[in-house]
Recover the amino acids of this structure.
């Protein structure tokens, strides 16, 4: 049988309230170009929840609510209420200020946040921008054992209508019990991970359980995921590593300290400007 990718490491998240983080400042290089994967899951709530205005720079942020709605406002002029399954990309560049608020559905609010670093140079320090696509416009690939939703990038003959700044594939996959999922990605997408939301899956000799991240061994080999008596819902995230330093302040990621300082100054101006005051009113 043809060789397939294996899991290099299984990672557990660091939980803080309803948020669980899986990529940390002290290990950014391990999943380059990915610099954040957060799972927000609040149960038993009746009122909206979220973060007030704050800033980012040097990153591209993908927001994906899977239970409830997410209301997003940013200093690019984007104001949108995302329904379950919609996708929004915020390219922060030289600085952006935004606010995200989740409205629960049936007492639960759940979403996923993925960040990539931006390429050093013009893209890293470009003006911020936002993109949005509703779930009905994101392609679904239905196969015998699985259904794959293409959030970013391409899976087989399906391509997402929304573009990312660097080569990335981001898939939401559901596999039936005793099923299998097999794919040969583009050979440049050597870095990535699998995150299991529910069920149980096998990747090579490794079994993943809910809320575990399986960091894939860097490789251009195909990916084979199997289930047993339980079906599964999981995310597969692949990308092309950036050949640059990754310096993080937590809220921002840049290739050098000069860009970090310039962007932080810009974020401070946005937070204190009349425009920033207007969007927070």
């Amino acid at each position: 049988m043809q060789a397939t990718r294996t899991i290099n490491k299984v990672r557990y998240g660091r939980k803080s309230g309803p948020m669980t983080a899986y990529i940390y400042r002290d290990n950014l290089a391990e999943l380059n170009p990915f610099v954040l994967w957060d799972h927000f899951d609040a149960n038993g709530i009746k009122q909206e929840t979220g973060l007030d205005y704050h800033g980012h720079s040097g990153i591209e942020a993908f927001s994906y609510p899977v239970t409830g709605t997410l209301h997003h406002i940013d200093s690019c002029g984007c104001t949108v209420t995302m329904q379950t399954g919609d996708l929004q990309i915020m390219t922060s560049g030289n600085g952006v200020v935004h606010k995200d608020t989740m409205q629960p559905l049936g007492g639960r609010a759940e979403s996923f946040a993925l960040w990539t670093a931006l390429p050093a140079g013009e893209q890293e320090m470009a003006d911020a921008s936002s993109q949005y696509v509703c779930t009905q416009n994101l392609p679904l690939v239905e196969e015998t054992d699985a259904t794959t939703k293409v959030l970013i990038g391409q899976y087989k003959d399906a391509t997402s209508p929304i573009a990312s700044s660097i080569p990335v594939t981001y898939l939401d996959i559901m596999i039936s019990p005793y099923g299998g999922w097999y794919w040969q990605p583009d050979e440049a997408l050597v870095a990535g991970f699998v995150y299991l939301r529910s069920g149980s899956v096998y990747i090579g000799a490794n079994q993943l359980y809910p809320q575990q991240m399986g960091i894939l061994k860097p490789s251009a080999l195909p990916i084979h995921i199997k289930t047993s008596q339980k079906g599964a819902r999981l995310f597969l995230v692949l990308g092309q590593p950036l050949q640059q330093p990754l310096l993080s302040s937590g809220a921002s990621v840049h290739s050098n300290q000069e860009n970090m300082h310039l962007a932080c100054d810009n974020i401070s101006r946005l937070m204190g400007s009349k425009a920033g005051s207007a969007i927070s009113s």
Helices lie at 257-272, 274-279. The chain has a mean pLDDT of 94.
